[in-house]
Write a structure and sequence with these properties.
- The protein is of the alpha+beta class.
- It is built from 3 helices and 6 strands.
- Strands 1, 2, 3, 4, 5 and 6 form a 6-stranded mixed beta sheet that branches.
- A hairpin with a 5-residue loop joins strand 4 and strand 5.
- The protein is elongated.
- It comes from Roseimaritima multifibrata.
Length: 195
């Protein structure tokens, strides 16, 4: 009969140290070579709300907060604004003015359904030519729209007494401005001077 070999205390400590080193060096955390970020190298979970908010803010700025510069107007005609606000722009402006709270399912929710949008042009006029810094001589073209939104709103409360409140004839009115510039005079595209 053979007797089992028992490790010494030193061998046990070295084995334990090797196991801890092997487990701690897996993935992003642990002993690595080269510079590290320390505690900042551990990823921190971020809510998708912040990603959606950043994307929505960028989309709003890209689409609706810039003022385009168009070519000169035709002599003898009155320029007419041809771009009423899109449904997307109206709904985004409505959501900015009246945000729907995220709600908690089975506790509180708000729904907006059966949305109809009516757009009416209020005014359409153009300012006399003047010099604008960074643009040059231009005319500012104003177009103001009245957008009326008809919808049904349902507020659902689930605690302490479950009930729902329905507003079938909710109406909201928004005023949206579509301003843009028209160049004035003989507009030549910029060409690089030749030497």
């Amino acid at each position: 009969m053979t007797t089992p070999i028992r490790p010494t205390a030193t061998q046990a400590i070295l084995g334990l140290l090797a196991a801890v080193t092997a487990l701690s060096s897996v993935g992003c955390v642990g002993i690595t070579t080269g510079p590290t970020l320390g505690i900042f190298s551990i990823p921190i979970p971020v809510s998708p709300y912040y990603q959606k908010k950043a994307e929505d803010d960028f989309r709003w700025k890209e689409r609706y907060e810039r003022v385009p510069i168009l070519g000169p107007t035709t002599h003898g005609t009155t320029p007419v604004a041809l771009d009423p606000p899109s449904d997307d722009e109206v709904i985004r402006a409505f959501e900015k003015a009246n945000p729907v709270a995220g709600g908690v399912p089975l506790l509180y929710e708000r729904q907006r359904n059966n949305v109809r949008i009516i757009k009416e042009k209020i005014t359409d006029y153009i300012d006399p030519p003047r010099f604008y810094p960074l643009i040059g001589p231009a005319q500012l073209h104003h177009a103001h729209y009245k957008c009326t939104i008809y919808y049904s709103q349902r507020d659902i409360a689930g605690y302490p007494v479950p009930h729902s409140l329905d507003d079938e004839e909710a109406v909201e009115t928004l005023y949206i401005d579509h301003n843009h510039f028209h160049m004035v005079g003989d507009v030549e595209p910029y060409q690089t001077p030749t030497l």
